[in-house]
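Worked example (supplementary).
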Amino acid sequence: MTASILAVEIRDELYAIIRDPVAALFSIAMPVGMFAVFATLFGAEGDGPVSGATLMLATFGAFGVISVALTPGIGIAEDRERGWLQVKRVSPVPVRTTLAAKVVASLPVALGVYAAMSLTAFALGRFDTDIGTWLRIAGLLLLGSLPFALLSMAVGFVARGRSAPAIINAVFLPMAIAGGLWMPLEVLPAFVQDLAVWLPTYHTSQLGLGLLVGDPILDNIAALLAATAVAASLAAIAYRSMRA
Amino acid sequence: MTDIVTIRGLDHSYGQTRALRGVDLTVGAGECVALLGPNGAGKTTLVSALTGALAPAAGTVRITGSDPRRPATRRRLGVVHQHAGFPRTLKVRELVAGWAVRAGRPASDADAVLAEVGLLDLTKRRVTELSGGQQQRLQLAMSLAVDPTLLVLDEPTVGLDVEARRRFWATLAARRDRGTAVLLTTHQIEEAAAVADRVVVLHQGTVIAIGSPADLTAQLPDRTVTARTALPDSELRALPDVLDVTVADGRMRAVSARPEATVRALLAADPTLADLRVEGASLEQAIVSMTAAQESRKVAA
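After joint prediction of all chains, the assembly is encoded as:
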């Protein structure tokens, strides 16, 4: 497998995200727009020296990065339904390369979403962290989105093209809200706060929050590793039962 | 002639249904082999095994000596599917250039093959904005961009107009002259008869006939006698060795087991006979006859 083949696969998948108005709206514009609204309204509130807008880079940042990480599953379901995956299966490119390219292509887009949110915070005068921490949060958010990419692929392997986005969002949006990605957990009911620690969305946001306020994040990393293992198993099972 | 495709003892089942039963097949360099048979004959399973999409239960499939299940073997395999379902976010040239790169060819090969199939003026158009016929030509361009040693064509001319069909087969002929082997599956039997060197007839997973279109039609002794005649239907049916007669617009069409005897009797009975023709069986008639005979043998057994 040469680098040029991988580059073509990634380019095609990148176009699939940025040239598709629906994907761009839900995966890019909506999270950034929501961040802009919430950071404007509540960005001045915060935790000590860190403004609310900067803390939202961890929570809404997780929401934005995960929203993009879910695109591979939607793409797989559409490719299956159209018959394109069948065409790819008899090409010289192994299917695992095509699948990996879908995930890799989502990374720069996810980074772009995080950067757009950061620029918004900066424009509001509420960007209260250093570049090193900002980069570490970016890296952790991308790694923390891996179980979601795998989960979306599991759905993409078995769901129909049109129903895949609905299924993925039906799973993800409640997890995002209950995981504290849209609003602080403290304002949510007690049972939701109890539920949150079982959700990978919560642990992904805690990675960034931990770095910003100095809390330990090892437990969150362990929880996300476990979630990744579960999601990878589900994706493997779904792949075996896939009908292209 | 070097064999590009070698299939030996290919066997595959889906649950209790046996799709292929010990199929042997070769396709030589520059040769065009048409795979024909009714729905459910096993054509799709055979093509899936040949293109590496299916691991057969038994037997071997080789393309230039290598297993098509290995991605590297498929580098010089071009496939034209009945329906490709292109991604809606790519443009024509991007798709073809990308396909060339995947096969280890330079992206710049794209323009030459797009010119070859007549799509050079549409390179910047989104692939989903092309008409059905243009999308079939695009598939051909993709398959040619890999500089194929083998082309597998599944109903390739569906949706093409007459001129596009002519151009399609002319393009294929040029590639065959350069040594590209072609395996064609189609339900357009007369088209297959016109372009294929050999025809393979599959029936219920078994190869029941293999040979040139002329060889296969020669196996069917019946001939069709047509003429303009004033003879009534009853007299036409009484002609010697006639198996079946139809009359439409003053023109009779009789299937005869011994056309010489039928024609002699016809000329004697009708001095006003005009526009007499004797034609051999069509490939379609031959295949229908072969599959019917196979069914009869199966029932008798």
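Two points are worth noting when inspecting this output. The interface with chain B takes residues 2, 4-5, 8-9, 11-12, 15-16, 19-20, 79, 81-84, 86-87, 89-94 of chain A (CB under 8 Å). Chain A has one domain: 3-240.
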